[in-house]
Design a protein that fits this description.
Elements lengths: L1 H9 L6 E8 L2 H13 L5 E14 L2 E15 L3 H11 L8 E4 L5 H11 L1
Antiparallel strand pairs: 1-3, 1-4, 2-3
Helix pairs in contact: 1-4, 2-3
Length: 118
């Protein structure tokens, strides 16, 4: 398994890969953000998941919203550029932009990601 986790270091990908989660106010917003990031080759893939019901603290009280979840797959080194693009295109004052490391995956899939973004 270690071979699958760390092979990208041999390929020159400094810090591996991440998945970034962005909650969007609509499917259209999620699609616009995804298209921008894809065209700039900052991400290899975007998944748009609809009908997410969110509950959260906002301005001192519990609030709720129907949202669309955008999941972005990329190299960790691209996070700052992606964060800047998302903030510029997002309708929320404080958009959710959180990343988690991809600790393992199909070698073929990770190689494909590497080829598309690095």
């Amino acid at each position: 398994m270690e071979r699958h986790i760390f092979w990208w270091k041999e390929k020159g990908v400094k810090d591996g890969f991440i998945a970034i989660f962005v909650a969007c106010g609509s499917g259209g917003e999620a699609k616009r953000i995804a298209e921008t990031l894809l065209k700039k080759r900052l991400i290899a893939c975007a998944n748009i998941t609809g009908a997410v019901r969110s509950r959260f603290w906002w301005k001192g009280k519990i609030d709720s919203a129907r949202e669309v979840l955008l999941t972005l797959k990329t190299a960790r080194a691209n996070f700052a550029k992606i964060e800047k693009e998302v903030k510029a295109k997002h309708s929320y004052d404080v958009p959710e932009i959180i990343a988690v490391p991809i600790v393992a995956g199909s070698r073929e899939y990770l190689e494909w990601m590497n080829d598309e973004i690095c």
